[in-house]
Amino acid sequence: MNNPVISSLVPVVLLIAIGFMAGRVGWIRAEATKDLSNLVFMVLTPALLFRTMSTVHVEQLDFKPVAVYFVGALLLFGAMLAWQGLTRRATVLALAATFSNTLAIGTPLVALAYGEAGLVTLFTLISVHALVLLTVATVVLELVVAREGAALGTGDKRQMMRTVLGAVRNGIMHPVPLPIIVGLLFAQTGLLIPAVLERPLLLLGNAFGPLALVLVGVTLTHVRVGEQLKGALGLSLAKNLVFPALVAALGWMLGLSGLPLTVMIVTASLPIGANVFMFSQRYEVAQDLVTASMAVSTALGVVTISLVMALVDWV
To answer: For the residues 62-70, what does the mean pLDDT come to?
Structure first.
């Protein structure tokens, strides 16, 4: 258990397994999953993000690895569209290949493996992760929808613009990036959180990791892979292995190294994030495949994340 890869991954896997078993035997029912999700993302998440970033000064942040991450994501996104064509389905699958589960799985994993310094790097990415990738996906999807509407004589450019602006607004006014931004602004004042408030924030933040991972396991009990296995496996391998390999190659080509790049590579290897499913629902495409892919990429993550972390440590 002295190996950092094993010591950080085993607790993650065990907590997901506990959630899976609790869901299977009915200790946590499907109806309760939404309430648990709200607790995690509306209460525990802001507490953790704000407290972590409330002592970080902007000059301490390293944006180069974050930029490399997004360059890699956009290259893979574009490659997926070039391969499958500019359609709703191709766009949603391209988003699935590039959108990581940075919060529920990434945050506890990075905290265990790389500590507070790793979390600062991760939260720097998270502050703009959804804003960048979901806005890009929204623009592409709305262009596709507009093209389909034009072909049918029902296109509405104003509706497309409203949707894109809504995606930008939601990417900022959200319980994930907003507390990061507020925490950073607070840190620049030089003030400290009063002890009477800091202690509850610490306790709430500490509860985030275990509960989020248990929730991932519970969610997996409601997924049926079935006939989508082949497609889900291919998409999961692109997300879990191709994406981190691309980020690593770009980073090393630009001469980057150290903890910030390591965190970006490991983050790229994380399973597919839940926001992709919301996009597949909104645009009514590939819903079964996306759901199956989220489950398969999470299950494969036990092996693929271990491999990526071991290779990064070795190199």
So the answer is: 93
The total of other beta-carbon atoms located within 10 Å of residue 66's CB is 23
Among positive and negative, which fits the CA dihedral 291, 294, 298, 304? positive
Q: Which of 10, 22, 7 is nearest to 217 (CA)?
A: 22
Structural domain span for residue 265: 4-314
Give me the phi and psi of 55, to 5 degrees please: -120, 10
Distance, CA of 27 to CA of 184 (rounded, Å): 39
Task: Give how many domains the chain has, as a whole number.
Answer: 1
Give the pLDDT confidence score for residue 170 in this predicted structure. 59
Q: List the structure tokens of 156.
A: 């509405």
Number of helices (H) and strands (E), helices first, in the chain?
14, 0
Task: Give the Cα separation of 169 and 151 in Å (integer).
Answer: 29
Q: Do 16 and 220 form a contact (C-beta atoms < 8 A)?
A: yes
**What gap in Å lies between CA 275 and CA 141, rounded to an integer?**
15
Whether 232 shows a pLDDT value over 80: the answer reads yes
Q: What is the per-residue pLDDT for 134?
A: 83
Tokens in use for 273?
Answer: 């994030």
> Is 0.70 surpassed by the pTM of this model?
yes
Tell me the C-alpha distance between 191 and 183, whole Å. 11
| Nearest to 266, CA basis, from 153, 74, 121 | 121
Amino acid 55: pLDDT? 85
Closest Cα to residue 147, out of 94, 86, 91, 90?
A: 86
pLDDT range class, residue 2, cuts 50, 70, 90: low
Q: Any idea what the CATH number is for the domain that residue 33 is in?
A: 1.20.1530.20
